[in-house]
Write a structure and sequence with these properties.
The chain contains eight helices and twelve strands.
């Protein structure tokens, strides 16, 4: 499958020489929002929360977060699938998210899976292509981005990349401009924070960002268990999430954004993002 940038700023997604979908230009949504957003991750803690008081708020969902909204008459307005295998190995959940609607931000593998397995959703799909920084030349041309010189990119705040950094300085950080790509290592929550910034949100509440050994608030399938063995994957995920979140934490210290981790028991250290309870969030919001 090929992704060809068109004159409008979107991408023609082509299969066997035919265009099967035309993605929306990212620039259409840049800075179209402001204020607060709730980023819905999939850690076990979110299973205990009643989101009903948050009706009318803005949400960014990811991966299996759609399962949390089964009992509510509202859904995330924005949905991101940024990893390489989620859509393929958990297709029923991906399909559920597509049926719920909203505006999607999809990495190339997710688009490929939807075009192959869910072509019936393409006519009504409202989606934008996102891509990791290390693949930027494939999609927008030019050379490899340099996070240490580009003001749109906030790299990992160290003198050198951490030990596990498959793409060097492109592995960890915070992108202020998704048109240039996103830092792909870490957790999907990290991708969503970069999306939230791009959309214009400046105060972010993280729900279910537990980084715990109990992976999700819903049962994992055998395919998921095979791809993400416990505990090794979670230990690596915690390390990579910390690496990515350190860049976002710098933006917090500089006053660009505010990020609150709405789980006092999260494994992510409070020195990176302050931890607060769900009750405290409702008080802050006057709900």
């Amino acid at each position: 499958m090929q992704f060809v940038k068109n004159n409008s700023g979107g991408f023609d997604i082509c299969d066997a020489g035919s265009t099967v979908y035309v993605s929306k230009p990212l620039r259409e949504v840049r800075n179209t929002r402001s204020g607060d957003v709730f980023i819905v991750a999939t850690g076990p803690s979110i299973g205990k929360l009643d989101l009903a008081p948050l009706k009318g708020q803005f949400f960014i969902g990811m991966n299996g977060a759609i399962n949390k909204f089964d009992d509510y008459d509202f859904k995330p307005q924005y949905y991101l699938v940024g990893d390489d295998i989620f859509a393929e190995i958990t297709w029923p959940i991906m399909e559920k998210a597509l049926q719920a609607g909203g505006k999607f931000f999809l990495a190339p593998p997710a688009f490929e899976t939807i075009c192959r397995r869910g072509a019936k959703y393409l006519p009504s799909l409202d989606a934008h292509l996102i891509f990791p920084l290390d693949r930027a030349p494939e999609f927008i041309g030019g050379g490899i981005p340099n996070p240490r010189k580009d003001p749109d990119l906030e790299p990992y705040p160290g003198k050198r990349p951490p030990i596990y950094a498959p793409h060097g300085w492109l592995s960890y950080g915070f992108s202020r401009n998704l048109e240039k790509g996103f830092f792909r290592h870490g957790s999907s929550t990290d991708y969503c924070m970069q999306l939230a910034y791009y959309l214009g949100f400046r105060r972010m509440f993280l729900l279910g960002h537990d980084l715990s050994f109990d992976r999700h608030f819903y049962p994992d399938t055998e395919d998921v268990a095979r791809h993400w063995p416990k505990p090794g994957h979670v230990e690596m995920q915690l390390g990579t999430a910390i690496n990515n979140d350190l860049a976002a934490s710098k933006l917090c210290k500089d006053g660009e954004i505010q990020v609150f981790n709405v789980n006092p028991d999260s494994n992510l250290p409070a020195k990176i993002f302050p931890k607060i309870s769900f009750g405290e969030v409702l008080k802050m919001k006057g709900l």
